């Protein structure tokens, strides 16, 4: 019972603590006549990292946007820690999103705020009980983890693409989420910056034990940071497994994809 | 005659008999499409407004962003609105002096200026100036945030963008328009007096006394507060156009332009309706 004496409805997630962190089932999505997702089913558990690979336009980013509720699927379901997010209202969806961190492909930093304010943004809105100094300490600690503690007062336009990705990653992690979604974390970066981002993601995953889904074109990055890989083609999962399992596959598309990676 | 000239003459001599009907059908069809698109736009705007109202009345309230917008929309529009109000006062004074002198009613000049400014020119000039400055600003800012996924990032951070971005801007427009109107009115009346005084010595005290003679509460309050409705139109249209933008830099440009054009148009149309309503309720 809650304070007003009413029986509070328990979230499904509490009822089913063994549920996967993210479970996507038979997801379909089309834009006009173009079918982008055609029956995608995936599961990711806590502490596990799934890399979603595929050619451009195969709906990888759309999949992530549906998982966090930025787009609605035509059919199918998305369950976050056992709770189906379909049909939730804005406030209920916000509660689910607090458990998730999202790194956008182009970082999507707020260009009117400094780097430090960008990272502090979720804290200011969801941890109002924290004092300004506590918020600042947490931002500073996370920015140190991503190697950008000296750039707190810079504007997003004044830092490089790789640095923007680091800031985006810090912002995604500031609420200590259970689930991390990364959309092309190394796209557009030079090999050294890509490697640094991969190392950073690995380190943060080890420290925070999140369930992660990484959408990428970069096979090397996928191999480095993930436990499992799922390869998408024409809106379907062609194969799902470890990198070694993908290498052993006889499927023509898988062999072709690996050959060109 | 060349072949081409012969063909041209032939086509002039035997015009297709069914062309006017086809033209009419095609015109009606185009009009129908335009009407449908307008109704769809208006319906979507209504749904957007309802969603913003729902977001605005439920906590958490975004007071910090609201104060930032009050400053952005209010304080930063003040110089422009004051200048527009002052220029209107000068023009009104010059025009009214010429007309009233011709009809032998020069003594009514202060009243003509004051009543024109506070009844109509002050509010409508404020509405149009703000729809130009603020409408374009909000439309372009939100459109830019939309195409660079910043609005999605706000949503992904579990913050309602309608509450943070739209509700604060619309409320700031509603609150600031009447205050800006007061500034435009004051500047218009003072500059009307200055223009008058340059032609014929007259103290500000005399001008105000004469100008506000016979004026009461109803002459001042309803026309000033009708601009809150202009604020609602400007904020709502600009936020809606900005937040539904698609298509990169070109989309941002389109959103800014359409925000200004549509909000100015609706401010003028709303003024027609509001003036009539004011005359009905406060004759």
Structural notes for this entry:
The complex is a heterodimer of chains A (261) and B (283). Chain A contains ten helices and ten strands. Chain A has helices at residues 12-15, 60-67, 90-97, 115-126, 132-145, 161-173, 191-208, 219-225, 243-248, 252-260; strands spanning 22-31, 34-44, 49-54, 75-80, 83-84, 100-103, 179-183, 211-215, 228-233, 236-241. In chain A, strand 1 and strand 2 form a beta hairpin. The longest helix of chain A has 18 residues, at 191-208. Residues 1-15 of chain A have low confidence and may be disordered. Chain B is mainly alpha-helical and 283 residues long. Chain B contains eleven helices and no strands. The radius of gyration of chain B is 25 Å and the shape is globular. The chains are: A alpha/beta (261), B mainly alpha (283). The interface between A and B is medium-sized, with 25 and 17 residues.
List keywords for this structure.
heterodimer, A: 261 residues, alpha/beta, six-stranded mixed sheet, four-stranded antiparallel sheet, disordered N terminus, B: 283 residues, mainly alpha, 11 helices
Number of helices of chain B: 11
Number-wise, the strands of chain B total 0
Largest sheet descriptor of chain A: 6 strands, mixed
Q: Count of DSSP helices of chain A? A: 10
Q: Uncertain segments of chain B of ≥5 residues (pLDDT<50)?
A: none
User: What structural class do the secondary elements of chain B suggest?
Assistant: mainly alpha
How much is the average pLDDT of chain B? 89
Q: Distance N terminus to C terminus of chain A?
A: 56 Å
Low-confidence stretches of chain A: 1-15
* Class by alpha and beta content of chain A: alpha/beta
Biggest interface, chains and residue tallies:
A-B, 25 and 17 residues
Largest sheet of chain B: none
Percent of sequence in beta strands of chain A: 15-25%
- Proportion of strand residues of chain B: under 5%
Oligomerization category of the chains in this entry: heterodimer
Distance between the termini of chain B: 74 Å
Output the strand order for the largest sheet of chain A: 6-7-8-3-9-10
């Amino acid at each position: 019972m809650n304070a007003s004496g009413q029986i509070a409805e328990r979230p499904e997630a509490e009822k089913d603590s063994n549920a996967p962190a993210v479970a996507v089932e038979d997801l379909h999505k089309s834009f006009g006549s173009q079918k982008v997702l055609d029956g995608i089913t995936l599961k990711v558990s806590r502490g596990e990292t799934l890399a979603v690979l595929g050619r451009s336009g195969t709906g990888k980013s759309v999949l992530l946007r549906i998982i966090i509720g930025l787009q609605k699927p035509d059919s199918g379901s998305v369950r976050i820690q056992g709770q189906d997010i379909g049909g939730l209202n804005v406030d209920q969806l916000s509660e689910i999103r607090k458990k998730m961190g999202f790194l956008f492909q182009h970082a999507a930093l707020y260009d009117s705020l400094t780097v430090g304010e960008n990272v502090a943004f979720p804290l200011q809105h969801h941890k109002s009980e924290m004092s300004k100094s506590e918020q600042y300490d947490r931002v500073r600690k996370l920015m140190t983890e991503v190697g950008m503690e000296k750039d707190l007062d810079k504007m997003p336009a004044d830092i490089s693409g790789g640095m923007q990705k680091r800031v985006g990653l810090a912002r995604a992690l500031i609420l200590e989420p259970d689930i991390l979604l990364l959309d092309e974390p190394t796209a557009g970066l030079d090999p050294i910056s890509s490697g640094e981002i991969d190392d950073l993601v690995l380190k943060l995953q080890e420290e925070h034990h999140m369930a992660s889904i990484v959408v990428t074109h970069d096979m090397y990055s996928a191999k480095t940071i993930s436990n499992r890989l799922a390869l998408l083609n024409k809106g379907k999962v062609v194969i799902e497994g470890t990198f070694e399992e993908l290498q052993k596959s006889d499927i023509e598309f898988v062999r072709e994809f690996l050959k060109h990676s | 005659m060349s072949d081409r000239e012969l063909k041209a003459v032939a086509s002039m001599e035997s015009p297709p008999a069914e062309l006017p009907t086809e033209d009419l059908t095609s015109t009606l069809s185009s009009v129908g499409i335009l009407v449908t698109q307008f109704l769809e736009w208006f319906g979507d705007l209504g749904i957007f407004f309802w969603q913003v109202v729902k977001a605005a009345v439920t906590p958490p309230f975004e007071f910090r962003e609201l104060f930032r917008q009050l400053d952005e929309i209010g304080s930063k529009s003040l110089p422009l609105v004051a200048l527009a109000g002052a220029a209107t006062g000068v023009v009104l004074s010059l025009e009214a002096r010429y007309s009233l002198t011709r009809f032998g009613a020069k003594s009514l000049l202060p009243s003509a200026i004051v009543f024109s400014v506070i009844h109509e020119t002050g509010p409508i000039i404020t509405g149009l100036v703000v729809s130009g400055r603020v409408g374009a600003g909000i439309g372009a800012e939100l459109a830019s945030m939309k195409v660079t996924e910043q609005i999605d990032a706000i949503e992904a951070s579990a913050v309602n963008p309608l509450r943070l971005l739209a509700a604060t801007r619309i409320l700031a427009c509603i609150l600031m328009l009447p205050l800006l109107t007061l500034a435009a009115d004051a500047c218009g009346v003072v500059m009307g007096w200055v223009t008058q005084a340059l032609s014929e010595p007259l103290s500000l005290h005399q001008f105000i006394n004469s100008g506000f003679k016979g004026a009461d509460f109803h002459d001042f309050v309803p026309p000033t507060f009708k601009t809150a409705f202009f604020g609602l139109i400007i904020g709502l249209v600009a936020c809606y156009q900005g937040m539904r933008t698609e298509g990169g830099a070109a989309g941002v440009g389109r959103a800014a332009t359409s925000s200004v054009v549509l909000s100015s148009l609706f401010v003028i149309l709303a003024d027609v309706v509001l003036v009539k309503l004011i005359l009905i309720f406060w004759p």
